[in-house]
Structure formats: structure tokens, C-alpha cells
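Page header: ASSEMBLY MODEL / two components / 724 residues total.
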Amino acid sequence: MAIVKLFANLRKVAGIRKIDISGASLTAVVSELVKQNPALSGYLLENGQLRPYVIVTINGHPTLDMQAALSEQDQIAIFPPIAGGAYDAPGHKLRFSILEKSATRCYAFVTVKGINCHFAR
Amino acid sequence: MNGWNGKILEIDLTTHTHKTYQLDMDMARQFIGGRGLGARLLWDLVGPEVDPLAPENVLIFTNGPLTATGYQTSNRFSVTTKSPLTGTVLDANSGGFWGMQFKKTGYDVLIVRGKSPAPVWIEIKNSEVAFHDASQLWGMRVYALTEKLGQDNNKRNVLCIGPAGENLSRIASIMNDRERALARGGTGAVMGSKNLKAIVVEGSGRPEIEDKDRFKFMLYETRKLLAASPLTSQALPEFGTVVLMNIMNNIGALSTRNHQQTQFEGAEQISGEALTEKYLVKNASCWACPIGCTRISKTEKVEGEGPEFESTWAFGAQCGIDDLAAIIEVNSLCNDLGLDTISAGSTIACAMEMSEKGYLDSDLSFGRADQLAGCVEDMAYRRDLGAEMTDGSLRMATKYGHPELSMSAKGMEMPAYDPRGLQGQGLLYATSNRGGCHMRGNMIGLEVLGLPKLIDRFQVQGKSSYVILNQNSNAAIDSLVVCKFTNMGVADEYFARVLSAVTGIQYDTGAMIKIGERVWNLERMYNLREGFTRKEDTLPARLLTEAPLDGPSKGWVSQLEPMLKEYYRGRGWDENGVPTPKKLADLGLAFLQEQSLSSLVRA
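Prediction written out in full:
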């Protein structure tokens, strides 16, 4: 059983700080964690993959390798994104707004799936 | 002329006179403002013959072309001087409201020279400058003085020193807007050496903006990006900078008990999560800041801003203390006395280790939260052992024969991130122009947080290129001047675009980075002129030779030497760390070569 520790707002979302979970890989453990705590889904996963900038460490070593094999008693720590990216909340929907429009120029701002774009003409 | 006011105010405290003159706009274009402009002016004004606490040293307060425009976080300002702690070039910058208000008085730069015959405070109301007797104010602490002089966030702003600055503590800070600090390197001692207690500003002007439509669009874009970034919209407002405590501890890079360990068993008790749960009252923010990372905390004894991560670490893990209430209270006490929390906490930790090992005749020991407040009071008033601690850990440890126990670089106490678990961070500390500092190009984004990508924190080869880029980028941001937290949601490109919109001068990302590189090289040349050499680009022996015995960084020491060689090459410097004539010429710094480069290198 791997020991999974949650930090920052993940604790509030899941209502737990620590949980023991079985799994042969990081992917398996995170999937099981989300299965047991569905509220974490939007905070950790996107299209079944770990959301960008979520910080995961195995025994204190940051990793991006979700296929990393785990051993019994491995300690996994999961921190929410605390830097980078363009996400503001799970389930982010397309937003579009015309900022300024005149005879000579038009500025628009679009946010979709975490990608910020602006258009100027 | 847009963005800049185009004016310098120079005050001579010896004669209580002042004059105004034009800002050299070529200089402003090349160095922007803030840290860059301050370093350029210091080069001309303060040479190697000047003692940092002599009247000939100057305080150069600078804002930037973005200051007071209303651009996000355009509240910040800098002070540049020769550091009484390190002897290096020193700039410190601060947020709050004072910088915005100073810009509204119509000046870009305030140069303070000389020494007043008696304590004085200065009042600047637009173009009017008044000198007031401060003999009745001398001795007052920061909170009471700030209130007495009429602090009113958006109208009238107070910058001052506390007892620590008056008593020439080399780790004294200058405080503004009550609890904001130009914290590091002993800025407060320089102000105290001039018998200058406070500078109060009131302004009614507003900087001109060249392209208002483009500027409004940049405001809108930046606001959206800051709101979209999880750090600037969620992590920082919700947990403050102390959110880093558990992360750094988890990876084994949280310096503990004067860097004897890299993990602290009490980290959870002093974490951002604990602060939010037990002591947070509300959030607050600086002028024009949508991030609002400021935390108002409350214990049974105090209520006020902070503590930030570094302060919490310095009085917490570094001293082996897990009493968060005591840390909040000593942080508040440091602000009231005008002391740098990082240097104060780390110096106490150094004294604790020396005491436990019998090198000091003292009962100080790790874990004793009850000793913190007394230590800080003694430091501010130069009482007992505090009289030695107040000049920083290196001077104290050297006096008692153990300089190796000072966890400092170039004499400035390092922050929380342990170089044994973060190789790039170690190179950053060793090469920082103002000494052990994380604000010169923090590598935590790359080595821990994955921003913009995750790189191996133990990697050595190739690490210097990241450090150089971060240092240059940070020097540019410090010259704008805006808050570095904006850079977590907004790319460098945006700074170039908003600077172009405000000034009408076209800057791009490459130009911004080159400005940063120019500033970095100028600061390096200043330090070389002061007599610094390659030998000072180093870390405490403990970090180079004593590997942690357990935790995720077990077995690692800082691999500084190979990184340093690579760093010099990457910088275009020679093997002694001296910028080559070609490099200086490329950066428009050929005038620095009027001094013989060979004479800058000590044997």
C-alpha cells in the first residue's frame, strides 16, 4: 500500500490529509484516489491524465512519470498546481469577450480549455 | 516623455538643501528604472573608498516607468546603496503604497546624500521639500511612528527606520507603509547613519501614458492571465507564500537547524495550511494588485501582516521551532523594530548552534521559541550578545572563531531553499550580486514546481544557462519595477508590451532580457571594483562538504565548482569571473573599461 499525502486545498476538497492506496503505478494510485474521492477529479485529472502543473513526488522526488512503478510503503505527495499554467478551476469553459471595438481596431479575449488567446485587428 | 517623470530630486542632509535636475533619458532607456537605474547611478556616486556607513554613501530611491500607472503591481520601488552587511552593491525593493505615492510627487529618483547634524525627517509634497526636526521621534518604533506621521494609504505614505536602523544594525531594514520592508543588506543602517528617521510623501501627479488604448488592453489581458493562473489566483491568495513550506520539506530541501538538516519534523505545524487554519484573519493587497498575497494574521498578542514563507522558515525550521504563534509574533516584532527577518532568524540559528557546541557563552538552543523575542530586542538595541548578532551571522561567527557556521553567501544570510537538494539554487546564491538571496532569479520554478517545465534538481551540467536566464529576467523585472509574482502568470513578453505602450519606445522580450543582462554585468563590475573576486562566489563549506544523512537529498552536496565554471563561460566572463571587454561593449557598458580590468582582479 502506498501512502498518499494531500496538501493545500486538496485536503479541503477531499476532506482527508492522508490515505493508503494500492496500485502498481502512479497512474493506478491516482485513479484509485480519484475513484474514492470523486471531488478530486477536476483538480487532478484532465482527460484521464494528470493535469499540468500538479506536483507529484515519490519519496520526495518530483516526477512527471505517471507510469513509474511503485513499491509497498512508497510515499506519494500531491500538491495542487501552485505555479504556471492557465487554469483557474476544474471544468473551465470557453469564455469570449470583446474588449474593445472601434472603426479601426477590435480586441477580443478568449479563454478555452486553459489557453488564453487574444486577437487584435 | 511618457512613463518617466524625467526628474531627479537630490537631498543633501549635511546642509539640509535640495535640488532638482533632469533624468538622463538615454540612461533611463538603457536601465529603465528601479534596480537598474539605481545601480547605474551608484556606479558614479559611490566608489570603493566609501564606507557604507559614512556620509559619502547614498540612498537612491527609484521607481520605474510603470509605477503608479495602474498596471498590475505597479506599486513597487527600490532603494540602492552600498551594503553595510556585504560591502556589495545592494538594492532592495518593496511593495505597498509608498512607491506609487513617490512617483506621484513628480520624481523618478530620490538621492539622499550626507549626514544630518541632528535627527531629521523629510516631507515631500509634490515639488515641495521640507526638513523637520526628528529628535522627538528618534527611538520610536515603526508602527507608532508610521501612525504619528499620518500614514494614509492612498494619500500620504510613510517610510522610516526603527530602533535597529538608528543603532546601525547591519541587518536593519527600511520600512514603508507600516509593515512593508526594504529588507535586506542593512538598508536601515545606512538611513540611520545619516540621522534620517523618515521620508513622507504626498503627490497629486500621474504619469503620462503614450498609447492609452494599448495600455488598457494590456491591463485587461494581464488581469485575465493573473486570474487564470492557479498560483496568482488561488495558491497565493489562499495560502500565502508559506504554501511552499510543506513542498520544500517534502523534497528534503528545507534548511533546518542552521542547515544541519534538510527536513524539519515540525514543518506541518508552521505550514501555509496551518497558518490559514489557525491564524489567518483576512487577505490584503498592495496598491493596484489583484493577487492579494498579503496575509493578515492574528495571535493572542499581535495582529498584522505576514509572516511570509522566508520569515516563517527563518524563525521556524532554521531555529528548530514549530510554534507558529511565536513566529508570527517575532515577525511582527522585527517589522516594528525594523529588522530583516531572514538575516535575524538565521543569525539566531547560527548563535544557537554555536551555543550548543560551546563556542558561545549563552543558553541559546534550537527549539526554544521563548528565546526569539528577547534575541530580536537585543539585536535592535545592541544589548548583550545582540550587539554582535545584529551585524549578521558572519561577523558574529568570525569573532568567535567559527565563520564556517554562518549560513551566508558574501555575508548575506541565505533563504530557506537548501542548495544540496537544489543545485541550481546553490549556483544562484553563490553568484548573486547582493549575496545569499532567492530574489535574484529563483530556480524553484524549474527545479521543483515545473514552471515552465520540470528539470532535474540534482542536475549539474547545463544548469548554469537556466540560472543566467532567470537572473537576467529578474533584473529586468526589478528595473520596471513590478512584483515578481506577476511573472508567475504573465510572461516576460507582456512586460515588454506594456512598457512599450506606456513609454512609446518599442521593447521586445529580447530587449528586456538584454537590459537585465546589462544590469547584472554592471552590478558585477561594481562588486569587482569593490575588491570582490571569484573567491567570494561560493557557499558555506557545510553545503559543499556535508551531505544530509537522510531524506530525499541524502548524500548530496552542492556541486558548485563545475557549475561556476560553466556559468562564467555562459556569461561571457573570463575564468576569474570578470566580464570581458567584448561582453561589456556588447551591452553598452564599454565606459566601465575606463578602469583597468586587470586591476580589478585581486591576487
